[in-house]
Design goal:
By secondary structure, this protein is an alpha/beta fold. It contains five helices and four strands, in the order αβαβαβααβ. Strands 1-2-3-4 form a four-stranded parallel sheet, sandwiched between helices. α1 packs parallel to α2.
Length: about 190
């Protein structure tokens, strides 16, 4: 019902969010979990890949938040959880657009948290490391040829963390960038 929106198009995002609001009456919890990636050096990185990565990984997040906030404000409660990446906290070679988008997502999350701090709405970023998803299949194959594979996280672990962030126990956690990265960013 809600999985046919092209997140590179504002009208498609507006349609998706309007359908969600019409169907459910309000949006109380918004989880932005989008991601595409292309790896290549900055000097040869294709502009169309840059634009697509920024649009899907960052701009779509802004638009969904913007559409969800009025409902959350009206209800005096809401949870916004953006699935950023460890690359929102640290850089890696050949990932300029992805790193820029995920850093931007973390910055956006902090602004939303500040703007909503007194409204019963929290905004946080989860920053996973290696997650067993199709997004990293090519990278994993390259790594496996050179070294041992990193420990992979199951997407379910992220889901369980999201449930915690939606709970009353996490009501004071807002504006945070929360790594789930096996100590990758602890260095």
């Amino acid at each position: 019902m809600f999985d046919d929106a092209n997140l590179m198009e504002d009208n498609a995002i507006n349609g998706l969010m309007s359908r969600a609001l019409d169907t459910m009456g309000s949006i109380d919890i918004l989880v932005n979990n989008t991601g595409i990636q292309h790896t290549e050096a900055v000097d040869t990185f294709p502009k169309n890949k840059w634009n697509a990565i920024i649009a899907i990984n960052l701009t779509a997040t802004f638009h969904t938040i913007q559409k969800a906030l009025p409902s959350m404000k009206s209800n005096g409660w809401g949870r916004i959880i953006n699935i950023a990446s460890v690359h929102g906290l640290v850089a890696s070679l050949n990932k300029s657009a992805y790193v820029a988008a995920k850093h931007g997502m973390i910055g956006l999350t902090k602004v939303v948290a500040l703007e909503c701090a007194e409204l019963g709405i929290t905004a946080n970023s989860i920053c996973p490391g290696w997650v067993d998803t199709p997004l990293i299949n090519d990278q994993i194959n390259d790594i496996a040829q050179k070294q041992s594979l990193p420990e992979m996280m199951n997407p379910r672990q992220i889901g369980e963390f999201i449930l915690f962030l939606c709970s009353d126990s996490a009501r004071s956690i807002t504006g945070a960038s929360l790594p789930m990265d096996g100590a990758w960013t602890a260095q």
